[in-house]
Amino acid sequence: MRKLLDKKLGPSLPLLGFILGSCSSFGGEHSSQDLKNYSASGSYNQESQRFENQNQDLIDPMKDKVFSFNFITKLIFPPDNLRPPGPLPEKHIDFQAFLQPSTSAKLIWLGHSSFLVRMAEKTILIDPVFFNAGPFFFLGRRFQPSIVRVEDLPPVDYIVISHDHFDHLEMRTAQYFAQMKTQFIVPLGVRTHLTYWGVPEQNIIERDWWGSHRDGELEVILTPSRHYSGRSGFLANDTLWGSFVIRDTHSSIYYSGDSGYDSHFKDIAQRYGPFQIALVENGQYHEISRQIHLFPEDTLQAFKDLNAQTLVPIHWGMFALSQHPWDEPIKTINQLASEHGIDLYMPKLGEIFSTQRPRTLERWWEP
Q: What is the C-alpha separation between 63 and 57, in angstroms, rounded?
């Protein structure tokens, strides 16, 4: 339907173009051949034609809770402290230093769950979102403009996408890189969105859980998570979701994507741990969605399961996608890390940090 509207009505009027552009951001639709191909995945249910978690029966009841009167009322009348009182501190990105050869992996936090990583002489973008985290300008508004424009980035070798939600997969970014040699590494099904937006098939590496991609010393492995997918329907699960292990001969990083707590953290550690840095979800949680998002105490336990050296909290600090105060996640996990003797690090926006230790934590979120 979206393809037909684009073809028939796209050039008509500016307003119509805006509506169609927003529709385009919902992505593509799977072919019958796609659905046949997905049936080979152990995570795909052929009967329901959707991907599933190992405990999907615990997650499905969320639908009724999310569409309850109380939950919707809180979305319409949110509390006042969802956004910071002013801009978060930033550091100018020194791309020359970032690209300098090193045996240590280098990382830059771009906000929320977006990172720029330099490893094995390759530049990797993780879940890049440079604009708002929604299909319309009034949804998922940023706290502040992106620390860097996508046009000002150094050449990017790989873009890694954990799942197809708007705060992790952005149409405008995909379209920008569609004309370049950048490779996208994505879970099953996400290819359909990318090709719909113009990314060539040959630039897309699609993987099931535990599938990997090697490029010289660099290896990127799609690992499980406990979440859901869908750009136009809640719990549609028409594409797979996941976490990532990114490693070379010197460094090993884990990226959780979005996930509820489950045994997969231990499974990943047994196969690929230990990790020098674990980027673990810690924000945008709600009691209704606890099965698919981590509360700070869950983040702590997941980090322990992962057998990692340093915890870097993600999925906070740029969008208000839940009902908790904007700084509650970092305050809580900082307190828990102190109580449990865990090495916590939270960089400023644009700050370059590496897998090397020690690091000095600056509590920049405090007044």
A: 12
- What backbone phi and psi angles, to 5 degrees, belong to 74? -65, -30
Maximum CA extent, the chain: 61
Residue 360 has pLDDT above 60, yes or no: yes
Here the CATH number for the domain that contains residue 109 is 3.60.15.10
Place of tokens 């990790």: 275
CA gap 101, 87 in Å, rounded: 32
The whole-angstrom distance between residue 170's C-alpha and the CA centroid of its chain comes to 10
What's CA 31's distance to the chain center, in Å?
25
Would you tell me the crossing angle of helices 264-272 and 296-306 to the nearest 10 degrees? Answer: 30
Token reading at 182: 């950048």
Please tell me whether residue 7 adopts helix, strand or coil conformation.
helix
Relative orientation angle of helices 296-306 and 328-340, to the nearest 10 degrees: 50
Number of domains in the chain: 1
Residue-number span of the structural domain to which 250 is assigned: 80-354
Closest CA to 171 of 143, 204, 131: 131
In a domain? residue 278: yes
Which helix (H) or strand (E) is 125 found in, with range? strand 122-126
**What does the alpha-carbon distance between residue 306 and residue 298 come to, in Å, rounded to a whole number?**
12
Give 87's DSSP letter. P
pLDDT tens, position by position, 138-158: 788 999 999 999 999 999 999
Q: Does residue 20 fall inside a structural domain? A: no
How far apart (Å, rounded) are the C-alpha atoms in residues 301 and 262?
10
Q: How many CB atoms lie within 10 A of CB 239?
A: 29
pTM confidence score: 0.92
DSSP string, 167-236: TT--HHHHHHHTTSSPEEEEETTHHHHHHHTT--GGGEEEE-TT-EEEETTEEEEEE--S----SSSTT-
Euclidean distance between CA atoms 101 and 103, whole angstroms: 7
Indicate whether 362 belongs to any domain: no
Residue 198 lies inside a defined structural domain of this protein: yes
* pLDDT tens readout for residues 263-284: 999 999 999 999 999 999 999 9
